[in-house]
Amino acid sequence: MALKNSILRVQLFFDGDKKPELIKTIVLPPGYEKKEALICKRGKRTENTFQWGTGPIALSLFFVRYAAWCSNKKSPRLFEFVGKIGSPAHTLETSVLKKCDGLNWTLDMFGNAEGTDHNHLLSVIEKGSSDKSQAETPYRQGVNVKLLPFDALTINWRNADLNKTAEFEVLAVKLEEQWKNCITTPEISNKIEAAKQQQAEVKEDRPAEAKRAESDQRQTMAQQFRSLSVVSIISYITTAMLPARGSLAIENFSAEILSPECVNVLAEKLVSDSIRNFNDFFHATFEPPWESLPLVPDELNPQKIKELRFEGARVPDIKRSIGIFIASNRDLRERLAFMVARCNFPDMWYWFTAISFCKDRQSERKIAHEVELALNAAAEEPGFKENFLIYAPEKLPRLIQYFLDYDCVVAARLFEKINEEGRQEEARIRGIIYGDTSAKKS
């Protein structure tokens, strides 16, 4: 199968049950239809071989985690491989990426970009910011999805291609366990401790001004949300609620996201985006899919899953906080109403079901009445009636009932007129098809 010239295709083959190891890689570089595939096998270090150790394990774990991210439709939009000193992400950066151009095994695996000495691996893996002076700042790596899209990576384990999130997670857990066993050797442990000591010394020597600047540069959750789309925020929250993060981490996250600053930012984002993204946010469960739990095969049973799930206060409380805040802020309320009053029937109907998640009837009523006011102007705009007429007389009564539930009588009458016109049009058409007698009976 020929891929686009600008795409890299990577195939990783693992063998072994309890301790799976990478046994072979096949990399098809951009334009590979004109080249031979790069095949590298595990073995003693000679040409086109690699030895199974911390570097290849960390690299394998990176690609397996990326594959798991690709297979999970509720994953965040941006994949990140993150860790502090003494983590697989640290190993990947310091033992693989920083030495990539000098490591023969990475050259044998991925090859260089045509006409250059630049290893393809350095183009596939994008390094994030890593400040060694900050213990809190992890090592971060991402993927150049344009060069390695999700369908260009194949993970094969025990002679079968993996395609489910749970399968990738099982393999990842086993690989990480091997990585941990490898770094317990005295030589590697000493290197990690030396790196941690150097980090502590660098941090201690920094002037107070630099420390204050560092503190100022740390982004709060609200600041992160400002740079994300609503779709990405939904994924962000869903990932933050993964049971594997532990109850304490989830409780801390829940407390921060319910802070006034976060609620303010999220409310602003929602009324500034599309009505569909607004609806999707309020309908989101923020629950990770069952298959995303990092369990080994013999633990895949309902009781184990239930024990791992966090049973404390849930993030959906954020919906109530946002709804109350929007209702109390005239500008946000008017902007949301303007958007709702100009959407079509499916989105408006879905919006009513969305705001019910606010679970605060007074706030819901206040927002609904603002929509009723906005409809006065929207109803005069070209195409407004036509957007709803096609749903009369069968479906429009549902929308009318929603307005009546919130005592929006004027809005209900507006749509009742449209609904009646639709009913008359339907009768006229039936009269043409079945004759005047049938039309009168209807």
Q: Which properties best describe this structure?
A:
442 residues, alpha+beta, 2 domains, three-stranded antiparallel beta sheet
Structure overview:
With 442 residues, this protein is of the alpha+beta class. It folds into 2 domains: 210 residues, no CATH class; 153 residues, no CATH class. It contains 21 helices and 9 strands. The strands form 2 sheets. The chain has a 6-stranded mixed β-sheet, with helices on one face. Strands 5-7-6 form a 3-stranded antiparallel β-sheet. Strand 1 and strand 2 form a beta hairpin. Helix 1 packs across helix 2 and helix 12 packs parallel to helix 16. The longest helix has 26 residues. It starts with 8 loop residues before the first strand and ends with a helix.
Strand order of the largest sheet: 4-3-2-1-8-9
SSE pattern:
EEEEHEHHHEEEEHHHHHHHHHHHHHHHHH
Taking the alpha carbons of the first and last residues, their distance comes to 59 Å
How much helical structure, as a percent, in the residues? Answer: 55-70%
Strands, count: 9
Shape: elongated
Tally of distinct domains: 2
What is the count of DSSP helices, taking H or I runs of 4+ residues?
21
Radius of gyration: 28 Å
Major sheet? 6 strands, mixed
How much is the average pLDDT?
78
Strand content: 5-15%
Unreliable segments of 5+ consecutive residues: 131-135, 209-217, 288-313, 438-442
Structural category: alpha+beta
